[in-house]
Amino acid sequence: MPAHPFRQMSKGAQMKDELTIRNAWPTDLDAIISLDQVTTKEAKPEYWRNILSHYLTGDSKNRLILIAQIDAKVIGFIVGEVRAWEYGSPPCGWVFALAVSPEARKMGIGTSLYLEIATRWEQAGVATLRTMADRDDKPTLSFFRSMGLRTGSFIELEMQLD
Hints:
Number of helices: 4
Strand order of the largest sheet: 1-2-3-4-5
CATH architecture: 3-Layer(aba) Sandwich
Structural class: alpha+beta
Number of strands: 5
CATH superfamily: Gcn5-related N-acetyltransferase (GNAT)
Shape: globular
CATH class: Alpha Beta
């Protein structure tokens, strides 16, 4: 993966305290649930309990939950995993959740989280990063495009089951 052009904090970022990005801990569960609910407008506590249980136990080298915090306050998270050989795709890093506290937006937190997960996967030998976004979710699409993601070679297909 070539060096990413956005490997620095956005120019508009202004943080009084130092941003820390670290691996998630089991004690982050409530903060993750809360941030997800604020950003998605939907409570999914059991989903997040299962994700944390799965991602933080056993062989988790290909699964990441990263936490962004200032002082002791969790202000964002990103979740993803390395997936391989589905429909012939070589190993790639998938980002499937990213949330930043509304009070901390426009400070480069999402960018910092994205760059950290991309860097870790790059160091592990992964050459491609993927995600999915709703075509009507303009802010999310804009963010990922600003990180350099473009339409990939795979097409999502779906069917409603009634």
